[in-house]
TrEMBL record:
Record's cofactor remark: Binds 1 [4Fe-4S] cluster.
Residues that span the membrane, as ranges: none
One example of a Gene Ontology biological process annotation: base-excision repair, AP site formation
GO MF assignments: 4 iron, 4 sulfur cluster binding; class I DNA-(apurinic or apyrimidinic site) endonuclease activity; DNA binding; G/T mismatch-specific thymine-DNA glycosylase activity; metal ion binding
Name of the protein described by the UniProt record: Endonuclease III
Cofactor dependency: [4Fe-4S] cluster
Protein family membership: Belongs to the Nth/MutY family.
Origin superkingdom: Archaea
InterPro entries: DNA_glycosylase, Endonuclease3_FeS-loop_motif, HhH-GPD_domain, HhH_base_excis_C, HhH_motif, Nth
Matches recorded under Gene3D superfamilies: Helix-hairpin-Helix base-excision DNA repair enzymes (C-terminal), Hypothetical protein, domain 2
Amino acid sequence: MGTPLDTREAQAEEVIDRLYEEYPDSTISLNFSNRLELLIAVMLSAQCTDERVNQETAHLFEKYETVEDYAEADEDELSEELGSITYHNSKADYIKSSARTIIDEYDGEVPDTMEGLTDLKGVGRKTANVVLQHGYDIVEGVVVDTHVQRISRRLGITEDERPEDIEQDLMGIVAEEHWQQYTHLFISHGRATCTARNPDCGDCVLEDLCPSSKLDHDVDLASGESWD
């Protein structure tokens, strides 16, 4: 029976404990070797799979090695390099513009603050949080991607809908020591079991806690719609 615990804090804690056990090696899946590559990879990952991004950056990072390479790149050529990436034209613009800002305002170094990172074109809190966490070991918030958004709502941990609101809500519910790993655990679970369209509730370690379980409930709290 999918029944959540009495408080959202208790629900979140139990969910995290179970997911730690289920996915002990969960971590970021983007490939990078320095902070600039991390920033580029995360920018490219917006509305695109990490697998696809890794395929493209394998050759991209060989051709463009420095921030100057990106700043001076021909934008059309850079866009072509990113041909299979979602919104590659816009992302080429973001990357070139951000590289120029990094050179002009940050001495060629990827910023190490939320304010500095979100000052870059095309960089919001989600991207900035990832760069801070994995580039500088600074944890200022929770990265809210589509998996975190979907599963947090399905489990009744939050009722908010906008990523920015969800992040602020989670920061008041989830213990700070778990902020970084929360994202990785939910991504792992979202890929393996709690998929967007057809979650495998029968094989889910959280089914008995889930108020959206297809085995017991008619409505997916993530979307507010009835299960097919």
